[in-house]
Structure prediction request, 569 residues.
Amino acid sequence: MENTTIVETHSLTKKYGSGVLAVDSVDMSVRRGEVYGFLGPNGAGKTTTLRMLVGLIRPTSGTATVAGHAPGDPRSLARIGSLIESPGFYPYLSGRENLMVVADMANVAHKRVDEVLDIVELASRAGRKFGTYSTGMKQRLGVAAALLKDPDLLILDEPTNGLDPQGMAEMRRLIKEIGHGDRTVLLSSHLLGEVEQICDRVSVISNGRLVRQSTVQDLLGEEGVLVRAQPMAAAQELLTRMFGPEVVSSRDGALYLKTQPDRSVEINRTLMNAGVGVSELRPYERSLEEVFFQLTGEKQGS
Amino acid sequence: MIATIKSELRKTIRRPALQVGSGLVGGVVVLVYSVLWYQATHPGSADRPVSIAMLYPDNFVNNVLGAGYPLGAALMIVLGALIAGSEYSWGTMKTLFTQGPSRLTVWAGRTIVFAAWAAFMTLILFAVGAVSSLVVASFEGHAVSWPAIIDIAKGAGAIWLIFAANGALGLALGTLVRQSAAALGVGIVYLLGVEIIVVRFVDGLNNGAYKWFGDLFMGQNSIALLQSFSPHPSLTIGTEQSVGVLLAYVVGLLVVAAGLQWRRDVT
Prediction:
């Protein structure tokens, strides 16, 4: 039986000569067929980790296995398509000619060039020089190049970087289409909504360390109930007595209860019977943004 | 390796800098022939008299060799630095290194294609020189006789070697500094200034006791190799030595650059 893990790292570490510890003992595992989000603020170590996975950077210590082989091994690279940071192409060549250069290097038949141009919807503009492309077109050409080998694993590093809202939506749709089926997509991003919409599992990296790896659902945690009432102090006292202090927390003028939303009727009745006016009572789900800021220790809106 | 060469060839052929470089080499030969022809047919227009016989086909090899150094050498440094350095500034290095072939295979493919381009430029140089000499002979009503094939081949080999050595310097500098502008600047300053000053200084030390060291520089050996084709050569460096030293530069510079490319992180 084939191994279900396509990317696995153990204590992967990169320390630059300047003493900067860019990636610190990262243990990551990406399963076949999933769309995996690699989240982290700018400078957290995402790109450095991805560069190590494709063999562009050598780790200082630790190990990694990508598509069954060491990073950078030709057998591994033959099964990986990647777009790391910005797309790198020759500005004096057209989009199609650039893909042919890459196809030659990867030993891929030229008919595949037209196939991937169709997938990224760039066929009509493939004859224009790369240097004249917009940011969105450049990103799409980068994705096309990554798809040339029809790879088992697609590594996309911040693919929506620099795109306008429409371009970002198109790119998300494209990634969803690409990730449909057996192909694994490893996507790095600092855009939480993007990851929440696209990914099956995510990991969060902060200051070079992987602080969490789980499904999006697990990361968001269980559902709860949000209550806004007057007077707040009385409402908090009642609900704490009812559920216990570990279930009730207060912030931003609201009470958050870690309990099933189907207890809303009971909560409403208790508060009303005690003469507390309820202005808002609804199921509550943590956003990935909240979880992210909590895990990375960054301040929201800072 | 074949796949890598195909890929390198595809992008190199379309590169404007290389097309312009090839045109420039041919253009310079035409310019030199035109000026010399004018001077030969207009006595007093030059400091020293120019013999029209120099411009006939039997002498064309010697004439085109003059374009090999320093002009051709400088051009090859520029092209080498552009080819190696721009891969970093355009971010294409990471695109190529993640396709499958090893870094050394990619480098080998690039150097093979570059060597082939140097041969193509040599061919242009000789073809334009031959045609120019034929035009002069035809206009002057002089019988056409060509040099022996072996002499043409030796001359072409010498030019290719000088192009290859200086191109290798450009490639190595482009790889070392990971950008083209600084690399070609350093290369040109070295060729036209630094080496000349250093060699003069070394040759003058202790009544020439260290001249052997000065004779190991690329420019000295390039000049010596070209002078060996002169009807009256005044050689201070033997032809065998100049060929050996230039070959050593080609191999040494390409190996150093290959090591840098193999070992360094692509950031």
Remarks:
- The first helix of chain B runs from residue 2 to 13.
- Chain B has a mean pLDDT of 89.
- Chain B has eleven helices and no strands.
- The interface with chain A takes residues 3-4, 6-7, 10-11, 14-16, 90-102, 106, 265-267 of chain B (CB under 8 Å).
